[in-house]
């Protein structure tokens, strides 16, 4: 915890000098000293944007193959430093070490994926309706990208924004969440050690002041944001008003629906994984379970037994399934939802309000059963290890429950009935549909984005995201012969 917390602007470590401060602590070891550090000022945002703007002119002219080579080196360094990076994630935000290792590996693969895209054609050759006209298209970078990333995936979300941005010739000003400054610095060190030129990626520790300055900055041509719906909607309005681009991946109230044809053990296992991995702190995590009448009672009995048996504790131990939530803010928020459920008179069947934290911000798997669809616990994003279970009449009723909500990110059906699967996949208003898979889980080559209050702008990941980071240019050349 004694490592200096520094910004990286134009390749140079610079101490944050803003008026905002942040406190960090190991969320599983509150007996260890906590630490306050300064966040960045709007003036430092100006410096970072200026550095990115200067670097972008040169970076855009750099061979895509050279860009790819540097990204492959960065990916190799991430893989080489997997244990060091995973331990930082676990100690800064509480994710069990086995999950942290998985995140580090995924981050490396993301950079590899986008590096490989440098070898693909960057445009098209088209036929023209005019004689002797050669018509083609090319992609061009849009300029400086502001990347604003959350605390729940400190490395992988940063890489799936930075990777496609720099591969297409843009430069980046990255404002990571203040909860994990050492993770962010470690990733920046990877880019520097890989030989990325100064100014191509700049990193600023910050919260509201730095984030607002970055979003409003006239020198930033695009903002890629992951976080809450309220913040994402405000960012989209601000950037649109100044004719810049915004890509916002936001919240979710993700449903796992168990159809009467579904396999009970599969349903229970996937519900446990989706609801309680990472202490439920995933935008795609399972937060609401809908059950057909025929399977409701056996599912609830088996699910509660599994939830009560989960190992909650030290995230550095291999046996731990569920570690702490990320910090005191998250602990307070999740406890407030549990208290609201109790005050609402909902049936608390597992877990409940924890005692005041002494050793860490631990919250046991908490399950409310027979929750009405009008309850806050059935409609609002909790972002913690808390699940609401509701019985529905049938498939149509389940779809109605989902579609009347304000979110549309990732929803699952557990079923073997092909007709039910097809109807769910067609009718549910959601950016991601899963069949006999958990609600949580993405793949780097597939577009990822939500509907309604879960997403605005172009999707992330895959090749579709390249449309966000590039302009299309059409070129028509009249041949003299």
From TrEMBL:
- Keywords associated with the record: Oxidoreductase
Q: Name one Pfam family in it.
A: Aldedh
Presence of keyword Calcium: no
Asked whether the keyword Ribosomal protein is assigned, the reply is: no
Q: Which residues belong to any copy of the Aldehyde dehydrogenase domain?
A: 19-475
Molecular function as annotated in GO: oxidoreductase activity, acting on the aldehyde or oxo group of donors, NAD or NADP as acceptor
- SUPFAM superfamilies associated with the record: ALDH-like (SSF53720)
Question: Which protein family is it in?
Answer: Belongs to the aldehyde dehydrogenase family.
Supply the name of the protein: Aldehyde dehydrogenase family protein
Q: Which organism is it from?
A: Gluconacetobacter takamatsuzukensis
């Amino acid at each position: 915890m004694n490592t200096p917390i520094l910004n990286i602007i134009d390749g140079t470590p610079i101490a944050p000098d803003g008026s905002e401060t942040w406190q960090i602590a190991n969320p599983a070891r509150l007996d260890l000293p906590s630490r306050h550090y300064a966040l960045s000022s709007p003036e430092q945002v100006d410096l970072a944007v200026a550095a990115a703007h200067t670097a972008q002119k040169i970076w855009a002219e750099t061979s895509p193959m050279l860009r790819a080579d540097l990204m492959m080196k960065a990916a190799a360094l991430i893989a080489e430093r997997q244990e060091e990076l995973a331990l930082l994630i676990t100690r800064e935000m509480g994710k069990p070490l086995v999950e942290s290792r998985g995140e580090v590996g995924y981050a490396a693969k993301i950079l590899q994926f986008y590096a490989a895209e440098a070898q693909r054609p960057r445009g098209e050759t088209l036929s023209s309706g005019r004689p002797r006209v050669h018509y083609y298209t090319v992609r061009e970078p849009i300029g400086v990208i502001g990347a604003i990333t959350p605390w729940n995936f400190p490395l992988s979300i940063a890489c799936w924004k930075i990777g496609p941005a720099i591969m297409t010739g843009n430069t980046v000003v990255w404002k990571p969440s203040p909860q994990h400054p050492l993770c962010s610095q470690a990733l920046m060190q990877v880019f520097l050690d890989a030989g990325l030129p100064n100014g191509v990626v700049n990193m600023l520790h910050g919260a509201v002041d730095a984030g607002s300055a970055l979003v409003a900055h006239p020198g930033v041509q695009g903002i890629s944001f992951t976080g809450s719906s309220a913040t994402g909607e405000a960012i989209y309005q601000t950037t649109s008003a100044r004719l810049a681009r915004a890509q916002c991946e936001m919240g979710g109230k993700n449903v796992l629906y168990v159809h009467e044809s579904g396999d009970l053990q599969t349903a229970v296992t996937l519900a446990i994984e989706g609801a309680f991995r990472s202490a439920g702190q995933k935008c795609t995590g399972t937060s609401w379970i809908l059950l057909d009448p025929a399977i409701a009672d056996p599912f609830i009995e088996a699910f509660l037994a599994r939830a009560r048996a989960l190992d909650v504790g030290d995230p550095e131990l291999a046996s731990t399934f569920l570690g702490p939530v990320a910090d005191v803010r998250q602990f307070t928020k999740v406890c407030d939802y549990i208290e609201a459920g109790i005050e609402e008179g909902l049936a608390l069947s597992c877990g409940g309000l924890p005692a005041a934290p002494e050793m860490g911000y631990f919250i046991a798997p908490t399950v409310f059963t027979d929750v009405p669809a009008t309850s806050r616990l059935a409609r609002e994003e909790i972002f913690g290890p808390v699940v609401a279970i509701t019985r529905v009449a049938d498939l149509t009723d389940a779809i109605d429950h989902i579609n009347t909500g304000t979110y549309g990110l990732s929803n699952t059906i557990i079923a073997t009935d092909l007709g039910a699967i097809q109807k769910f996949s067609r009718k549910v208003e959601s950016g991601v549909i899963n069949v006999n898979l958990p609600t949580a889980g993405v793949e780097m080559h597939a577009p990822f984005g939500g509907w309604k209050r879960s997403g605005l702008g172009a999707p992330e990941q895959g090749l579709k995201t390249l449309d966000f980071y590039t302009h299309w240019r059409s070129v028509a050349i009249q041949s003299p012969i």
